[in-house]
Amino acid sequence: MSACVEISGVKIGGGHFQLIAGPCSVESKEQIIGIAERVKSSGASVLRGGAFKPRTSPYDFQGLRAEGIELLLEARRITGMPIVTEILSESHLPLFEHVDVIQVGARNMQNFELLTMLGRTDKPILLKRGLANTLAELLGSAEYILAGGNRNIILCERGVRTFETYTRNTLDLSAVPVLKELSDFPVVVDPSHALGISRLVGPMAMAAVAAGADGVMIEVHNDPANALCDGAQSLTPDEFDIVAERVRRIWSVLM
Amino acid sequence: MSACVEISGVKIGGGHFQLIAGPCSVESKEQIIGIAERVKSSGASVLRGGAFKPRTSPYDFQGLRAEGIELLLEARRITGMPIVTEILSESHLPLFEHVDVIQVGARNMQNFELLTMLGRTDKPILLKRGLANTLAELLGSAEYILAGGNRNIILCERGVRTFETYTRNTLDLSAVPVLKELSDFPVVVDPSHALGISRLVGPMAMAAVAAGADGVMIEVHNDPANALCDGAQSLTPDEFDIVAERVRRIWSVLM
Amino acid sequence: MSACVEISGVKIGGGHFQLIAGPCSVESKEQIIGIAERVKSSGASVLRGGAFKPRTSPYDFQGLRAEGIELLLEARRITGMPIVTEILSESHLPLFEHVDVIQVGARNMQNFELLTMLGRTDKPILLKRGLANTLAELLGSAEYILAGGNRNIILCERGVRTFETYTRNTLDLSAVPVLKELSDFPVVVDPSHALGISRLVGPMAMAAVAAGADGVMIEVHNDPANALCDGAQSLTPDEFDIVAERVRRIWSVLM
Amino acid sequence: MSACVEISGVKIGGGHFQLIAGPCSVESKEQIIGIAERVKSSGASVLRGGAFKPRTSPYDFQGLRAEGIELLLEARRITGMPIVTEILSESHLPLFEHVDVIQVGARNMQNFELLTMLGRTDKPILLKRGLANTLAELLGSAEYILAGGNRNIILCERGVRTFETYTRNTLDLSAVPVLKELSDFPVVVDPSHALGISRLVGPMAMAAVAAGADGVMIEVHNDPANALCDGAQSLTPDEFDIVAERVRRIWSVLM
Predict the structure, then answer these.
(1) What is the pLDDT of residue D182?
(2) What average pLDDT score do residues B207-234 get?
């Protein structure tokens, strides 16, 4: 059994399973608070939302950045849900002072200077596997955080690149039992980014739980068709409600 | 829901889930009958066993070939379990006359002459995805079988090649919901070949069921350490018994 | 330096470089003879042309099959160029009796029954690397041919599958020096299939020669826009003439 | 033909070909100056050397960091060669004030905050393709630099990840003509990191030039067996001398 990491009172790992949900990007106060309330009522315990967005092109929506973090904190005040959001540079660290979990995205998994700085904090870090990184390399990156004294590490599988084109990436669920064999960090799976297609998220979330994941992170948007980012992979709150229920059913028989 | 394929009285797909189990290779009469009895008592309904083995080197064990098929038929007579075994060439087709399910392995997924000949039979065909084939290509290969009039096709995900080296291949479980979205063939998952490590087979078999698979195919060997082929990925009968029970628990909550 | 294989009087390997050219598919008598004459005048010494075509879908053009081989033999009678064409099944072997070089395509690289039968002939075999096969596996397949006593093996790199989508496959030119380090077979490169884009064929053919290839195999079509197969990757005879000249210039400075 | 970028008086692209050479890591004053003098005498015009090293494990040698840059500047004073060295974080930018070319390594290709800061300088940037990034994504990253007004961009192919294990990565030389088709930046190839085996560097450097590269970057070490990093892929100065001569011969016939 993995160790338990505590996220502002919410335990993940060590026998505690959590649903993390929220929009790809924070877009407005109404949007983030509205989604937070809906996913909370469906059973999510941690709110995700992107403020700093790493985009392939500089001309794509880059997120609300500092303002997005403010809106997430506002959503936390209202709903009580701890928040997880991605950091892109160690120079932004002061902006993350009140964030509950700092996410390191796939593109920064080997940004070793950033990892080293995060190792000097005591915040939970959600470390995503890079798009073409081995599990040994993911653990090497975790070691950079550990080396600074921070043991609050949550690993995240989010799909790797292959030749398959129907799905955006290929979700490697064997990462779950392998990472548990090689380390004792909690392991979370993000099926939304891996697949890129909302109707596949449910079955793969259930599979992730059956494979032993300690949490699942799912994108939920109030209006996927008009999302500023990654709408095709986002569930509506009603769809999320169904997936959350199915995920809990799988979890219940693993106990 | 997928269509149902009938394997000598055993239904797979269309709401029917089956466990397929047996050794990588048929090695002797005692071995195949002993394993067949054990996996049957654990709940497996179809017996697998390799007679013709496609091996990277001509100097590796190539299987008992025609004799292996005879031993499988003997195991069927004794246990009543239908058998599935791999064909390597259309010239061997007469030897498969009494085989219940003919398997086309990953290396032959695009052996179109073989597929065309199998389309002219009425036998169930277990068609494995190639090591680097897209799901669209897998369905193209199924189409070769269909074109001859044979609709008894069962698709099988068995892992694809990536850069990851800890596991032998990367099991792409999203293949299950994608194939069900694009076709109505039953879909089986083979975690043993995908992972190459027996202790990962259980969690991934459970994940396969949660993802919606209609069957799971698992390698079981009475003495993995001395198996003539792929011992590292084989469960013992006792281990299989535990995995079978867990797989059924996942299946039970999906109904 | 690699060993030399003799193709009906044309030497390849052991210091002999050859250009192999022709259409993806044989389409008609006029087409194959016309192209053969043009590529011969540009310096090609072996004529390629597909008679049996392995296609992803059974509803795509499957080649002229036995008639295609007849047309290739006719082109040989008229131009004197030896011919290379692909075999899809050992049951077709009698049709290849007068073919100079039998090609085993990427999809059949691990069709071990076919390789075994080809090992019992004394014909030159052009063995292509599979789409996701390691170089060690390519040599394992060559070993199946060798095991039967046939040493006339020519290896061919034709691109592997990766995540890149701009080119059809990724041409792995390091295969050339690696295969020469691990074996003494001549090595040919097929940039046409690897890239799928005719205007990239020239630079990559030149690179293949610089990497040490003993031959380059290039698709040439009299009317690429109306080719029955793979027109986008085919050079016109005029374009081939320029590429052939550039390839020879690279070869000349390696001596 | 690509645009020309000027590196402190040395032109690359636009018909100008350059050899970049030096050790993986700067280890000492004697080492870097000794190697610089040797590679200069063999025809290299730009000196490479790692000061900040991105390593999978925090317990591996991390480079001499600021001191390494000082030693590179010292080598430049003595030999007159401009230097290229990798940056790991925008917070280190002041240390790179006198560096001629700033390298962005594969792991930071999508560190968009770093790219944005480099776009605000006027220094030449050597931007390496990520380990599993498409060419379109590489150009997206270049766009982040361009967006700030810096047009001095040199692209670098250094191998991508595939299933092949004999070489460290798979060098995708088709990147050269594709990048030239899609942009007008000079393109450099780094065969040393791609292959990981010194004896393959020569053939692939020659192939890179034949494919149209504007430069080749090669690792050279005075004592590869005792290098602190990546010795297996480093040429000795004598070996580099031979490779440099062969590369020039290929270049000479392309004019």
Answers:
(1) 97
(2) 94
Alpha-carbon distances of B176 from A217, B2, D168, rounded to whole Å: 20, 11, 32
Cβ distance D177 to C204 less than 8 Å, yes or no, reads yes
A101-125: pLDDT as tens digits? 999 999 999 999 999 999 999 999 9
Question: What tokens appear for B58 in the block?
Answer: 């001509």
For B70-117, the pLDDT digits (tens) are 999 999 999 999 999 999 999 999 999 999 999 999 999 999 999 999
pLDDT band of residue C197 (cuts 50, 70, 90) is very high
Q: Which residues are CB-contacts of D32 (< 8 A; sequence separation ≥ 6)? A: D22, D23, D26, D47, D49, D71, D72, D74, D75
Give the Cα separation of C128 and A89 in Å (integer). 46
Tell me the shortest Cα–Cα distance from C255 to chain A, in angstroms. Answer: 38
D residues 128-167 near A, CB within 8 Å? 130-133, 136-137, 140-141, 143-144, 147, 160-161
Closest CA to C218 of C125, D149, C198: C198
Residue of A nearest to B179 (CA): A166
How many residues belong to chain C?
255
**pTM, whole model, 2 decimals?**
0.96
Report residue A160's pLDDT band, with 50, 70 and 90 as the boundaries. very high
Tokens at A115, concatenated:
């990892």
* Stretch B123-148: mean pLDDT: 98
**Residue A13 corresponds to which amino acid?**
G
